[in-house]
Amino acid sequence: MDALIHDTSFTQSLMDENSYTISDEKLNGISCESLSAAITWAGGSDKIAIRTAHRLKQIFGDASIFMVIRNQQSMIKSVYNQYLAEGVGGLSFADFVSSCRFDESPFKLERLQYDRLITCYQSVFGKDRVLVLPYEMMLEEREVFFRRFEEFCGIHGYFPKNEHLNISNNVLGVLLLRSFNKLFSRKLFYSHVLWKMFRRIILRSVSLSKRLPLPKPKFIVDPDQLSLLYNESNKRTESLIGMNLDQYGYYW
Questions:
Q1: What is the dihedral of CA 116, 122, 128, 134, to 10 degrees?
Q2: Would you call 67 helix, strand, or coil by DSSP?
């Protein structure tokens, strides 16, 4: 869906070429992280997210929008794991969070102020066409989560298997990734092919390490920093989506 950053006619032509057809008999859905603009080091920004929302409106008209948000402390940990997995760098978690406060950082902690994106989509598509649910609801109240999703989409019987497919790294996995990223910097390595080969080996080792009964690393974000960055935003998000987020740990 990166084509959404291009003009509308170009995006439509790509969809036609790849046989993306709209069926009146089935629920048609497109899911992609890029729809909210990449929040990490891929150049995502609020500007791109807003532009994408308008592109979607131009192409799909009165589509329904389903968003899932996640507790910011948990989300920052997930972004850090992705930062390591993609070979971007080898900073410690504390240094990574600190680096996100600088202007030159490709990932800004403010990107996790969800009210801004929600306001944008509600403005473009209408509040009744945008459903926002917390990720934590899916974990703690699975049936309620998918019932809300079904009601919003007008479908019945959609209940995916409860499989944990993307298991986070344990302490050994984090150590392996940090060490590799420090020793084999993608920017400094003279052969991209060799870098990819070594990275494939290290990722395989990390995957195998997940089978070991080792503890998860303890990533802690300063509660005062979280409060300053997100408490007011989360209050606005509550008002926008009509839900109490305190029960899911969104306040510090």
A1: -20
A2: strand
Position 166: which residue type?
Answer: N
pTM value is 0.83
- The CATH class, in words, for 2-168+216-247 is alpha beta
Sign of CA dihedral 6, 11, 36, 77: negative
* CA gap 10, 68 in Å, rounded: 28
For residue range 160-201, list pLDDT tens digits in order. Answer: 766 666 788 899 999 999 998 888 776 665 557 777 788 888
Q: What torsion, rounded to 10 degrees, do the Cα atoms 18, 19, 20, 25 define?
A: -160
Q: What CA–CA distance (Å, rounded) separates 91 from 57?
A: 39
pLDDT tens per residue across span 111-169: 899 999 999 999 999 999 999 999 999 999 998 999 999 999 888 877 676 666 678 88
CA distance linking residue 140 with residue 126, whole number of Å: 29
Q: Is 163 exposed, middle or buried (0-12, 13-18, 19+ CB in 10 A)?
A: exposed
The answer to whether residues 100 and 79 touch, using CB atoms and an 8 Å cutoff, is: no
Output DSSP code: residue 37. Answer: -
